[in-house]
Amino acid sequence: MIILVLELLISVAATVLIFMKEPDAGILVALLPALFGIALFLLMTKARLKLEINDQEIHYQFRPFHLSRRTITRSQVDALTVVSYDPLSDYGGWGIRKGREGWAYTTAGHTGLLIKRNNGKPVLIGTSRPDALAAFLRSRWTALYRPAS
User: Fold this and answer.
1) 63-67, 69-73, 143-147: which range is least confident on average?
2) Do residues 85 and 103 lie in contact, with contact meaning Cβ atoms separated by under 8 Å?
3) Mean pLDDT throughout 30-50?
4) Which of 50, 62, 104, 139 could form a disulfide with 91 if both were Cys (CB 3.0 to 4.6 A apart)?
5) Where are the transmembrane segments (predicted)?
6) 47 contacts: CB under 8 Å, gap ≥ 6
7) Where are the strands (E) in 13-147, listed by range?
8) Rg of the chain, C-alpha, whole Å
9) Whole-model pTM?
């Protein structure tokens, strides 16, 4: 959240500087950085990551970026592990990111479900409830669940 507020302040400051330096510039050109910053701020504050798991499928949706939920079926999974990770060094931050371990969908925190798929493309989905998730996977996805080492 701090990063978003800083980004918004920098955008507004850039707008003021552009307008002061080039008073003849159109108002739209001068306001563009601030409008971009406000739009980005609103977009990121509305971002929601939803993870649902039943006995046969894993569903996830990162709103407003995914219009519909994504599904990974049990037959597509090689292994599941609840892991701790460093969002900055492993994936370059939060959000939808590509890292060494594949794609990550995170909003906050440093724990997630690492899904190793049989197509060789792993996915990490952040969770704020790692203990409940691990307990569910131990009981319902026993053959595929691997405790973190």
Assistant:
1) 63-67
2) no
3) 75
4) 104
5) 25-44
6) 62, 63, 64, 65, 95, 107
7) 48-53, 57-63, 70-73, 77-84, 95-99, 102-106, 111-117, 123-126
8) 20
9) 0.74
